[in-house]
Amino acid sequence: MRVLAIENYQDTPYGNVGRALEMAGVEVVKVRAFEGESVPASVDGYAGLVVFGGGQNALDDEGSPFLPRVCDLIRGFHQAERPVMGICLGSQLIARTFGGRNIIGRPIEFGWHDVTPTDAGRADPVFSALGDGAPLFHWHNDTFDLPPEAVHLATSRQTVNQGFRLGRSTYAFQFHFEAALPEVLDWSETFADMIASDTPDWPERLPTEAERHAARADATGKALAEAWTRLLGA
Question: 177-207, pLDDT tens digit by residue?
């Protein structure tokens, strides 16, 4: 079984998602779209699609001309009823693909913050892994309105639409559940200058917040990734 993974930005960690797929024996075919690698036009040969995050916004076709092809691919997997996972920018691209309004340039939501399931989320086969809610890692300015027919699955204090589902198995996650503590530490070092421009006190906050939140966030992210991975064999 193979899953297609689209990387939209440099230094994309697969984290909990990569570990769940590996444990399930799923082969991951990586496309580094940001480096100019061709985005496949067909879903043939793939059981599912993962679209990761990125620093650009979901409407930046000029700076990232591959984005419309990613949207076409999302639509193709959805129409074929093969599971789709979109994380952060990936979730915003799912919203764009199916008629949700992309909202650009809001105040940043960064660090571990509680994500709470809606009633529909508590009953959902994937988002039920949130339990009554858990601190998950966030790093985004942009958000979206829900597309028509989307099922609203999760929210946070700052961002109403933290997750939704379309159909049986197209899932949008605004939050970075893939980022367990090793990935957060790596981002904090690799993107230190970028983080400092919005969250200059992050180096001082990181140890305390990691001690408080990381264990629960990591366990919840693992459970979410494993729940979505189970859809591949359904």
Answer: 999 999 999 999 999 999 999 999 999 999 9
Taking CA atoms, 76 is separated from 20, 67, 80, 122, 157, in Å, by 24, 14, 6, 28, 33
The pLDDT mean for the chain works out to: 97
Nearest to 175 by CA among 197, 195, 160, 185: 160
- Distance, CA of 151 to CA of 170 (rounded, Å): 10
What are the domain boundaries of the chain? 2-231
Which residue, 70, 3, 4, is CA-closest to 34? 70
H or E element: which one contains 192? helix 192-198
Q: Which CATH superfamily is domain 2-231 in?
A: Class I glutamine amidotransferase (GATase) domain (3.40.50.880)
Of the pLDDT bands very low, low, confident and very high (cuts 50, 70, 90), residue 233 is: confident
Determine the average pLDDT of the residues in 6-10: 97
Burial tier of 132 (Cβ tally within 10 Å: 0-12, 13-18, 19+): exposed
- pLDDT cut 70: percent of the chain above it: 100
Locate 102 and state its tokens.
């992309």
Classified as helix, coil or strand, 99 is coil
Place of tokens 């809610």: 133
Structural contact between residues 164 and 153, judged by C-beta atoms closer than 8 angstroms? yes
Alpha carbons 6 and 25: distance in angstroms, whole number: 19
Q: Which residue has the tokens 């591949």?
A: 232
Question: Can you give the pTM of this predicted structure?
Answer: 0.97
CA 154 and chain centroid, separation: 13
